Protein: Pantothenate synthetase
Amino acid sequence: MPASPIIHRTVDDLRSAVSDWRRDGLRIGMVPTMGALHSGHLELVRAARERADRIIVSIFVNPTQFAPTEDFGSYPRTETSDVAKLAELGVEAVFAPNANEMYPTGYSTTVSLAGPAIGLETDFRPHFFSGVATVVSKLLIAAFPDVAMFGEKDYQQLMVVRQMARDLRLPTEIVGLPTIREADGLALSSRNAYLSAEERQAATTISRVMRHAADAIRADGDAEAALAEGRATLTAAGFRVDYLVLRNAETLAEIVDIANEPRRMLAAAWLGKTRLIDNIAV
Structure:
């Protein structure tokens, strides 16, 4: 039976473990999560193992990235099963603080953002990236890992975290891994658990629409026509579309020269009460 990871509840305890590893000259990897671990998270852990000697997985449902109307209270919390999955992969440490450890009484410091954080998600969730950047910076400062792993499914988040790490000169390499998908194309997400059976079947429309639009853009370069068709298809399938756009893959700025810029298509849409996001290279 694999050994269970050591669970650290405080920054001080985590730093003590990291200090011991550092003295032994070991390389440290971190996988920040909100728990409810699925195959995508576990792929991040496997990729971290290829790059580090000791792995820390954080499990913390971060209140500062949820608006009052969002699903903080109902977000799945499955620490026992999460830790069991991580034990199977030989993870050495889990950092699972409570909210008071991360945001003690009197806490008043947050990370302010621009650049890739402007637009897209923040047009609909203006609080989101400040909460993400604040908690990720605290996690990275708590452990100062050599490498931290993030999934490309949350592509704008990945760009924001990379920018933040560069700007704050954090000594951690930020690595993004390709989106892990179900066999039918749906991007893995903890929130997929909210979908009814009928919604789950319809949810694959997002990835199909994006692939079709990407093929059309590559064929004739008419991005707006392809994206407009995609939005219409999603709406007809019962989605409420927040955005379906084409952006520069490195900056998330609007495309100026479609033939010569790296391109990323990003989408966010509601299906019932569940908000799904996805992205693909074009």
